[in-house]
Amino acid sequence: MEQLRVKEELCVGCGQCTLVCEAGALKVEWGLTKVDGEICVLCGICLDFCPVEALAMEAS
Amino acid sequence: MNEFDVVVVGAGIGGLGAGALLADSGKFRVLILERLPFIGGRCSSLKHKGYTMTTAAVAIEGGGSLQRIFEDLGLVFNLRYPEPQVKYLIKGRQVEPPKKGALGFLMSQASASPDEAERVMKGLRGITELPPPELSVAAWLSRFTNDPGIIGIFRALCGGIISLSLEEASAAELIRLIQARSFRRFGFPPGGNADLAESLGKAIERAGGRLMTGSKVTGILVDDGKIGGVQWIKDGRKEQTYCSLLISNVGIAKTVKLAGRQWFSADELSRIKQAKASYSMTIEILSDRPLVDFPGLLYLPEARRAAFAACPSLICPEWAPKGRHLNLILGAPSRSEEPFDGQKELGKLLEDAKEFLPDFDQEADEWIMRSFRKDWPGFRGRPGHGFGPETSVQGLFNVGDSVNPPAFYGVSGAAESARGVTMKILSSSS
User: Fold this and answer.
1) What confidence tier does B341 reach under pLDDT thresholds 50, 70, 90?
2) Is there a contact between A14 and B370 if contact means CB atoms under 8 Å apart?
3) Given a cut of 80, is residue B430 above it in pLDDT?
4) Fewest CB within 10 angstroms: A12, A58, B220, B271, which?
């Protein structure tokens, strides 16, 4: 199984990923992106749109 | 023979501007490589539930460097200008500054006594020599006044214009900006910031250039101190091309990383290491009714972190679904460096939103709190930092807001850097 992970050391909290997430699985909280693994459909569009490459699909 | 004469790495306003001007000259075959799926970088916009949301830049300068690039390319520069441009919320009243003498007027409105404002104005008028660059606005201002009203005006100005706190903003640079009268007029593009970027992108393609998104540059090739080419990955495939001119729009530090430190002088490397960005923060608020009652910027000198609030959908209804509005409040954190205390800094911006946008609690259906920092900052360089576009590597130039010329910053700084590099390349090629 894969899951979406936020690399907090890279994430800036710009919210670009939340704007493109159709599922509504991402939220920026106090300057960092948080993933709701229950809602995320692993489409990966957020990876393309993240300007600092702070998102990754990883084996859970 | 090389397929391209110039490769541009990064499709921000600097890269697009330089790429478009060089392609348009008819002398260069231009390739633009961009990692993201869209162009414009931090001056672009994304659609979200029918709203046009910025990728960072808020309000675009009219009559400045970007407009000059558009005019040189024969493109329509479509901005809508709010009138009045700005108001200041002072002691519970919205005050519209006069076109001339705005700063003195605002200080006199905000201060406890008119003498305080006059003292600062005298200080400003009496400047024969700029203060040393390391002197902060806070330290400079304390020579004349400790009036909280006046300090608030300067805090909002520094936050709104250069996205720095009073303690971090350089007094010399602020004075230079005031004297240069930069950013006198701003507007909002009805098609969103993305529309400006796409106009430049189309100009590049029309002139025979190529624009490739989803292309992650992995190396800038240098041969014997000269630019040799570039490598990138697209759709999982490694690609490479040769070129003798390379324009980097990914920031000076990343440029060095991609090309290899060995090609840069020790002095250059140590200055790059010390280069600082300006962070910014916004809360974008989706609502039924506008939270600001006019289409310009409402400066908030009495706020904690906020510089201004605005409702751009009043002048650009295209930015929100019918009958809805897009509002924002923008400010600078106390420090533009890590560690960033998001709860404290964004928390204070949220407190400002609740205090100064009276309908926030009833009207804000959804809001998104954003910080622009580290590798995606409000401004990649600070005004007046002294970085030029040239590097130790022959044929390698930087553009963008990490190399904005003095008295330029942000989108205008990026555009001006593009104009500078283009002129340099064109003059040395003829």
Assistant:
1) very high
2) yes
3) no
4) A58
B353-407 pLDDT, tens digit per residue, is: 999 998 899 999 999 999 999 999 999 988 777 788 999 999 999 999 999 988 8
Is the residue at B269 inside a domain?
A: yes
What CATH number did the domain enclosing B55 receive?
3.50.50.60
- Asked if the Cβ–Cβ distance from A31 to B342 is below 8 Å, we say yes
Q: Which of B41, B214, B371 sits opposite A31 (nearest CB)?
A: B371
**Two tokens, residue B310:** 């605005």
Query: What whole-number distance in Å separates Cα of residue B419 and Cα of residue B399?
Result: 9
- The size of the A-B interface in CB pairs under 8 A is 67
Minimal Cα–Cα distance from A35 to chain B, Å?
15
Same domain assignment for residues B11 and B35: yes
Structure tokens at B90: 């002072």
Q: What residue of B is the nearest CA neighbor of A45?
A: B37
The whole-model pTM stands at: 0.97
Measured between alpha carbons, how far is B414 from B398 in angstroms, rounded to an integer?
Answer: 10
The CATH number assigned to the domain holding B301 equals: 3.90.660.50
* Complex confidence, ipTM: 0.98
The answer to whether A31 contacts B372, with C-beta atoms less than 8 Å apart, is: no
Nearest chain B CA: its distance from A54 CA (Å):
11
User: What pLDDT shows up at residue A21?
Assistant: 98
Nearest Cα residue in chain B from A47 = B36
Rounded Cα–Cα distance for residues B351 and B140 (Å): 28
Tokens linked to B100: 């001339």
Are B342 and A30 a contacting pair at CB < 8 A? yes
pLDDT digits (tens, 9 = 90+) for B84-93: 999 999 999 9
Question: How large a percentage of chain B has pLDDT more than 90?
Answer: 88
